[in-house]
Amino acid sequence: MSRKLAERLSSVAPSATLAMAARAAKLRAEGHRVFPFGVGEPDFDTPALIRNAAKAALDAGATHYTAVSGTAELKSAISAATERHRGYRPSPSEIVVSCGAKHVLFNIGLALYEPGDEVVIPAPFWVSYPEQVRLLGATPILVPTTEAEGFKLSPEKLEAALTPRTKAVVLCTPSNPTGAAYAEPELRALLEVLRRHDCWIIIDEIYADLVYDDFKHVSIPSIAEDLRDRVVIVDGVSKTYAMTGWRIGWSIAPPALTKAIDMVQSQSTTNAAAVSQAAAVAALNGPRDEIDAMRAAFDRRRVRMVEGLRSIPGVRCRMPEGAFYAFADVSGLYGAKHNGVELVTDDAIALWLLDAAHVATVAGTPFGAPGYLRFSYACSEEEIEQGIAAIREAVAVAKAQ
Ligand SMILES: Cc1ncc(COP(=O)(O)O)c(C=O)c1O
């Protein structure tokens, strides 16, 4: 059959959030206010200083191809920012700039994964990790973690998941969807295990600047010089600088892998948009006050969201260390009824909250965490307050049925 779609697509799940998004869009089109706790991006616009730098860059000629791996200015800004914020200084020969952190991860996968390879991913996980691994013909090994473990991989569970086929371990700290982040001793304990197993260590640090309560994000290259030849860092400007639409992310990897990623990218997207690279330079080199103000706003919203969720009977929620997600156990709501139907899955709870309270969330099952819902607090405190009140009311109505 010459017109058959590629077999590799058969193992990949379509985006689980589509049904919810379509229903939320319908509610909005009908004139309802929908509380946007499902979103995965800052509600802030990119700071004016960065936007203005991009406008000036366009007028100065940032309209052409750049080097595949990024402009010299951006790679040098990334080196300097990594030293300031992560405590080590990668050389430009270790950096490839791509079209967002998701693209970075896909490039890494294309450069590394083959059929038969296993990639260890702790659950709950960001949905794209296992799907990209499957798309590339390798096998995700999903390792469940519990809320009691802080949703963090223990050295024992890591050890048990590693096999001679393990090509890579992917960690996300702070995590989407849980907001959980690894403290330095926890990372050191995992590294002890990984020192005994020769595999790649891929760390997604896209949320590393969004940590709260004096939590200190520690970047593995700054504490494990001996592992630098197999650690790959994924980072970008999307979340910290409210720049999701600009599509700029980067890998920091040993030079041989960096060359391979450069080669992969040279045959797909070439370079990330020149103007976006110029904007990212302004973001990384610019003043921090607006960036700090956004982080402080997320912090206030985090407390409001978590305390609000905890005030609802049947809902439990851990205080997350970072990112902008609260990950709540809603299994205590199972058994409640909506339109006479008993609710017994996180998916059903999410759809009910959308219908009954006009609150959009994301169900935990696609993240590998049945019984949970992800509540994004990248929205105003007023929306959080009112959305929580709407949930409380819907729960009271459902319990009375
Ligand atoms: C954990 C994680 N990694 C990577 C990304 C992708 O970031 P980007 O928008 O830069 O592709 C996201 C976006 O939601 C994310 O949550």
Provide an overview of this structure.
- This protein has 401 residues and is an alpha/beta fold.
- Helices cover 40% and strands 15% of the residues.
- It contains 13 helices and 15 strands.
- The structure holds pyridoxal-5'-phosphate.
Note the total helix count: 13
Radius of gyration: 21 Å
Q: Main sheet: which strands, in order across?
A: 2-8-7-6-5-3-4
| Shape by Cα distribution | globular
Tell me the name of the CATH class of the largest domain: Alpha Beta
Outline the biggest β-sheet. 7 strands, mixed
User: What is the CATH superfamily label of the largest domain?
Assistant: Type I PLP-dependent aspartate aminotransferase-like (Major domain)
> Into how many domains do the coordinates divide?
2
> Roughly how many Å apart are the termini?
54 Å
- Please count the beta strands (DSSP E, at least 2 residues each): 15
> Could you name the ranges where pLDDT drops below 50 across 5 or more consecutive residues?
none
Structural class: alpha/beta
| Helix/strand order | HEHHEHEHEHEHEHEEHHHEEEEHEEEH
Entry keywords:
2 domains, binds pyridoxal-5'-phosphate, alpha/beta, Aspartate Aminotransferase, domain 2, 40% helix, 15 strands, single chain, Aspartate Aminotransferase, domain 1, 401 residues, four-stranded antiparallel beta sheet, seven-stranded mixed beta sheet
